[in-house]
Amino acid sequence: MRYDVIIIGSGLGGLVCGHILSKQGKRVLLLERQAQTGGCLQSYRRDGLAFDTGLHYVGGLAEGQSMYRIFNLLGLMRLPWQRLDPKGFDLVTIEGDTFALAEGYDAFVDTLAASFPKEREALRRYTDMLRKTQALDLGSADAGTLQAAGAYEWLTNNFSDPLLVNIVSGNALKMELRQESLPLFTFAHGQSSYIQSSWRLKGDGNMIVRSLTDDITHHGGTILCRAEVEELIEHDGHIVAARCRNGETYEGDVFISDVHPSQTFSWVKQSQVLKNLFRRRINSLENTFGMFTASLTIKKGTLPYFNHNKFVYSHPNVWTFYEDRSQDGDIGGVMISCRVPEDDSPYTRQIDLMTPMPWDQCQQWEDTLLYHRNTAYNMWKEQTYARCLALAETVIPGLSAAVEHHYTSTPLTYRDYTLTPFGSAYGVRKDYRNLMMTMLSPRTPLPNLLLTGQNLILHGLEGVAMTSLHTCSAILGKEVLEVSGER
Q1: What is the dihedral sign for C-alpha 101, 107, 108, 110?
Q2: 3-state secondary structure 237-255
Q3: What pLDDT score was predicted for residue 479?
Q4: Mapping DSSP to helix (H, G, I), strand (E, B) and coil, where does residue 66 land?
Q5: What is the DSSP secondary structure assignment for residue 464, as one 8-state letter?
Q6: Close Cβ partners of 482 (under 8 Å, ≥ 6 residues apart)
Q7: Residue 235 near residue 41 (C-beta atoms within 8 A)
Q8: What is residue 26's DSSP assignment?
Q9: Is 257 in contact with 452 (CB distance < 8 Å)?
Q10: What is the 8-class DSSP label of residue 340?
Q11: What tens digit of pLDDT does each residue of 307-318 get?
Q12: Residues of the chain whose pLDDT is less than 50?
């Protein structure tokens, strides 16, 4: 059977494309190398509980807000979303002082202006910039202007108090904060929808995966797991088939890769179209840092659920704390996410701790594979976990005594599961100084090979969903953007 569209990789980008294209009547085949779909959206089970690998919260899901229309289009608004505390959906603690980030642009300004009265107008300029960014089409000239501006430079020029720069950036562990390269557009898009409203799932990320995969199959699409692509076969300047490691070959008219570009183009073994210069450019792209994650099982009835996220920093500069780690592995910042109790108990059973981890922290084990790492690696993970827990305990006294079990992962884990170079958490590093090289388009030199996912325009749940719409528009036309509310 020949397919209209073959999608490689079932992360969010691949699933969104599969959902939209199958709903439009395309014969869709989705190929996934792992035993289950979902990429970093999937969950795993321990102690009878499901732990997420990537999903923690989502912004802008209230009716009329930025993500509502897209999630409604994808059938995801039927899931049990719980709104976080409007008075402080995120709490940012810097060297012992805690500040609340409030829902709603006006409330956000008023809450922080109470502590920084001289910065009220600067806070207003900041939220005006966020609001305008949220309304922009990803491909517009205005978006391009913001992409060509530096986030850190804009913030330090706008705010006179360095502490406030760090506070408004302090919940931005959902992106890589780099003073020298992060585009203002990336920063603003990653922050604005959460101020509109912030939400958690009352359940695990597999709920999103199941919803999308069920719809794809209902629309006539086919999903194959344990189907690892090893070659994309080119003929007359077009991709004609995907050959899998199990010997199966699948023919299609259009191919979409939700896999990192360097891996994607390595599958095109012989090409009349892909030049060596292009391959070198793709392979030279820098990637964002990875994450160290500790998933905690909490003893029953010991830790009350808190309806917000906590971001805790022992270092004063949230833009450089992960680079300032001392030789003994100091952890300068951690995000704490609390799982909504599914039994309506006032106590939580699950906490996630996350901290950025540059590749050099685990590079000595880069030649090892999942489940085959040595004792030194496991000891290092335990030491890192202990430091994360100690920092988290400064805002949750008694946390360590409440922990029943813990499970850890590093950039090596994510590399092995997702084929992402260096276990990058947010894909290719965008650089406002060199947009032509780092801001990738869905289109490639091969006219029927498209890209999707976090390595393109934006990352995160919102960014990937929006980017996937642009990938689909290359096949269906701009109508798909108009239906979703994009332009």
Answers
A1: negative
A2: CEEEEEEECCCCEEEEEEE
A3: 67
A4: coil
A5: H
A6: none
A7: no
A8: -
A9: yes
A10: P
A11: 999 999 998 999
A12: 327, 487
Average pLDDT, the chain: 93
Distance CA 386, CA 366 (A): 22
Question: Residue 487: its pLDDT value, please?
Answer: 47
Residues facing 43 on adjacent strands: 52
294's tokens: 């500790």
User: What is the pairing mode between strands 249-257 and 2-8?
Assistant: parallel
CB neighbourhood size of 404 (10 A)? 12
Whether 82 contacts 340, CB under 8 Å:
yes
What integer pLDDT is reported at residue 329 of this predicted model?
A: 65
Regarding beta strands 58-59 and 97-101, do their DSSP bridges make them parallel or antiparallel, or are they unpaired?
unpaired
Judge contact between 291 and 355, C-beta under 8 A: yes
- Give Cα separations from 129 to 96, 101, 133, 174, 189 (angstroms): 29, 17, 6, 19, 10
17 Cβ partners below 8 Å, 6+ apart? 5, 7, 256, 258, 452, 468, 471, 472
Give me 245's structure tokens: 């490691």
Write down the pLDDT at residue 182.
Answer: 95
Burial class (CB in 10 A: 0-12, 13-18, 19+), 428: buried
Question: How many beta carbons lie within 10 A of that of residue 362, not counting itself?
Answer: 24
Of 484, 426, 425, residue with least CA distance to 457? 426
According to DSSP, the residues that pair with 242 across neighbouring strands are: 232, 250
Cα dihedral 384, 390, 391, 392 sign? positive
**Angle, alpha carbons 55-56-59 (nearest 5°):** 100
Q: How far is it, in rounded angstroms, from Cα 487 to Cα 481?
A: 6
Distance of CA 46 to the CA centre of its chain: 23
